[in-house]
């Protein structure tokens, strides 16, 4: 696996993934995308170029882990979509972060404001 740690437990958590892989899952939580669209989203987030040699092996790892489904859009383009397991990983990561961030009513209000 390129950047993935070996996952032996059936319940995969975000902690089993690199931050780069977690970011890919977060991007795919919005909608299915083809590789170059994912690359552009990552580049906008990181503010620098994302190498194909980094992106596609990580997408393949996420497919292998059952967190992303890969399908063919045309002969040259693959589409990637979050699976139910991938959705659960993203949701689990959001829950983990919120459990640590929301420590009082003021912070809870900050999160509510983000969601509006």
From TrEMBL:
It holds the Pfam family PadR. Signal peptide: none annotated. InterPro entries: Metal_resp_DNA-bind_regulator, Tscrpt_reg_PadR_N, WH-like_DNA-bd_sf, WH_DNA-bd_sf. Residues 24-88 form the Transcription regulator PadR N-terminal domain. This is PadR family transcriptional regulator. It comes from Halorubrum ejinorense.
